[in-house]
Specification:
The protein is mainly α. Helix content is about 80%, strand content about 0%. The chain starts with a helix and ends in a 9-residue tail after the last helix.
C-alpha cells in the first residue's frame, strides 16, 4: 500500500509539524540576542547567563535519543503532541521568570521538551512519505532548520527593539505560546491515529541513563569551560565520559531492546553519514557564533542589523534546498561532498579577505561570503539528512531520528564551545576591528578543517539506495 493510500494529507501535515522545529531552533539562537537585556533585568551573573544559553543546549541534545525511542514505543503522534504542549508551557515559564534561577530551570525543561518533540518530526517524515517524495519533505526540514536559527538572530533583535507590549526580552519566549496553540490544533486534526509499531518495546533505563550521562559529562564542561578558565576539573570530567560511554555501549550490545539500536550502523550511509553530520555541525554551530561576534563586536552592528546580515545566507540556503532536490537524490553522499567544497571555497575567500583587509573589512565584503556559505550549506544539510535516513526502516524511524538529532545538537554545542573558545583566546584583550578580524581569520581556518573532514567522510557514503528497496521497508510505525 502506498503512502497516498494510507495518508493522503501528509503534505498538509508537514507545515504543522515543522512549526515545532522552527520554534526549537529559534529558541536555540534567540537568547544570544537577548542576553544583555535579560542579564540586566534579572541581575544575572555570567555563569547564570551561560546556563540560560547552554542549559537548553544540554537537555535538548541529551534527551534526543530517548525522545526518539519513546516515539517508537508510544507513538509519534502522541509524543509529538506531548512535546509541543510541553514546549509551549515551558516557554511560558521562561517568559514569566522573575529570577535567573527560575529562568535557568525553565530553559532546562524547555530543552527537554524540544528533545521529545524534534525526533518525532523526522520520524513522521520518514514513516509517512514514500521514498520518491522524501527528499522534497526533507528539503523543507532543512529550510526550516536554517530559517529558525537565522530568525532567532534577526527577528529576535527586531522583537526586543520594538518593545512589544513592553515585554522586552520576555517576548522572545511568550511569542511561542500562541504559535504552540495553533500548532496543537492543526496537529490534532491532521496527524493520523492509525500508525502502529507492530511490536512492543521495553524501555532501556540503564542505556538511557548511560547515554544522558555520557553527553552530560562532555557538554556541561564545554558549556562552562570558558567561564571557568578551562580549570583541571573540566578536563577530568570530560575524560570520565569515555569509560561511561564504553560501559553504555557494552550494555547496549547485550540489551534486547536498546535505546540506541546499534544495528542502525550496519547501513553504510548511517555509519559514515552520522560522523560527517557531526563535523559539519561543529562548523555550522560554532562559525555562526563567530560571525555574529565579528559583526557586532568588531563592526559595531546592532543585534538587528547583524541578524539582517545573515539574510543572504538564509535566502540562498532556502533556494538551494528547494531547487537542489533532484541533484541530491541523484548524487546521494556526493552532494554533501560538493556542498562542503563550496563552503570550503567560501571560507578560503573569507580568510584571504580578513588577512588582506584586516581592520578595513566591511559588511559589504562579508555579505557575498554569507551567500556562498548558504549555497554550500543548502546542499550539504539536505543531502546529509536524506542520506543518513535513506535506508532506515519505518519501524526504527524514531530511534534513527533521535540518534541523528542528538549528534547534530551535541556537535553544534561542541562547535560553539570549541570555536568560541579559540576566538576569545586569539582575541585576548583586543577590542578593535583589527583584533576581531585576526581572531576570526584563525577560527575560519579551523572551521575549514572540519568542513573538509565532512567532505571526506561524505565521499564514503556512496550513491543513494534504489527507491524500490527503501519503499519495501516495513509498514509505517508509531502508535497514535
Amino acid at each position: 500500500m502506498t503512502s497516498d493510500q494510507t495518508y493522503p494529507r501528509r503534505w498538509a501535515m508537514l507545515p504543522a509539524v515543522l512549526a515545532g522545529l522552527f520554534m526549537t531552533r529559534f529558541d536555540f539562537n534567540v537568547v544570544n540576542v537577548a542576553a544583555p537585556s535579560l542579564q540586566r533585568d534579572l541581575h544575572s551573573g555570567q555563569a547564570a547567563l551561560e546556563m540560560v544559553v547552554g542549559g537548553y543546549a544540554f537537555t535538548y541534545a541529551a534527551g534526543m535519543i530517548i525522545g526518539g525511542r519513546l516515539g517508537d514505543q508510544i507513538g509519534y503522534r502522541r509524543m509529538f503532541l506531548l512535546g509541543i504542549t510541553t514546549f509551549g508551557a515551558t516557554s511560558l515559564l521562561c517568559g514569566v521568570a522573575q529570577t535567573s534561577g527560575q529562568l535557568v530551570a525553565a530553559r532546562l525543561l524547555q530543552g527537554l521538551a524540544g528533545a521529545i518533540l524534534v525526533p518525532q518530526i523526522l520520524a513522521l517524515i520518514t514513516a509517512m512519505f514514500p521514498a520518491h517524495e522524501r527528499p522534497k519533505a526533507m528539503s523543507w526540514f532543512g529550510v526550516t532548520l536554517a530559517i529558525g536559527a537565522i530568525a532567532g538572530q534577526a527577528l529576535g533583535g527586531v522583537l526586543i527593539q520594538a518593545g512589544v507590549f513592553g515585554l522586552d526580552w520576555r517576548v522572545i519566549f511568550l511569542i511561542n505560546v500562541p504559535v504552540t496553540i495553533i500548532t496543537i490544533l492543526a496537529s490534532v486534526r491532521l496527524l493520523p491515529h492509525h500508525l502502529r509499531t507492530g511490536r512492543h518495546h521495553r524501555f532501556d533505563v540503564l542505556g538511557s541513563l548511560g547515554i544522558t550521562g555520557s553527553l552530560g559529562l562532555v557538554l556541561v564542561p564545554l558549556i562552562l569551560g570558558r567561564e571557568q578558565h578551562w580549570a583541571l576539573w573540566i578536563f577530568i570530567t570530560m575524560a570520565l565520559a569515555v569509560p561511561v560511554f564504553a560501559a553504555t555501549m557494552w550494555w547496549e550490545r547485550r540489551s534486547a531492546e536498546p535505546v540506541l539500536d546499534l544495528r542502525l550502523f550496519r547501513s553504510r550511509a548511517f555509519a559514515y553519514g552520522l560522523p560527517a553530520n557531526a563535523t559539519f555541525m561543529v562548523f555550522f554551530g560554532g562559525f555562526s557564533l563567530v560571525m555574529t561576534l565579528l559583526l557586532q563586536g568588531g563592526l559595531g552592528l546592532s543585534a538587528q542589523a547583524a541578524g539582517l546580515a545573515f539574510l543572504p545566507l538564509a535566502v540562498v540556503f532556502a533556494a538551494t534546498s528547494m531547487l537542489g532536490r533532484r541533484l541530491v537524490t541523484r548524487l546521494g553522499g556526493r552532494a554533501v561532498t560538493l556542498g562542503s567544497l563550496v563552503i570550503a571555497a567560501g571560507l578560503l575567500v573569507m580568510i584571504v579577505e580578513l588577512h588582506v583587509e584586516g581592520g578595513h573589512i566591511t559588511v559589504a565584503l562579508l555579505l557575498p561570503i554569507n551567500a556562498i556559505l548558504g549555497l554550500g550549506e543548502g546542499l550539504a544539510v539536505l543531502a546529509l539528512i536524506g542520506s543518513i535516513l535513506s535506508n532506515v526502516a519505518p519501524a526504527e524511524a524514531g530511534s534513527a531520528a533521535g540518534v541523528l538529532t542528538t549528534a547534530q545538537n551535541f556537535a553544534s554545542a561542541a562547535g560553539v564551545a570549541i570555536l568560541g573558545s579559540v576566538f576569545f583566546a586569539f582575541l585576548g584583550s583586543g577590542t578593535g576591528l583589527e583584533a576581531y578580524t585576526g581572531s576570526s581569520e584563525k577560527v575560519a581556518a579551523i572551521a575549514l578543517v572540519f568542513v573538509l573532514g565532512t567532505a571526506g567522510l561524505a565521499a564514503l557514503i556512496g550513491r543513494p539506495e534504489p527507491a524500490t528497496r527503501i519503499s519495501q521497508a516495513p509498514a509505517a510505525t508509531g502508535r497514535g
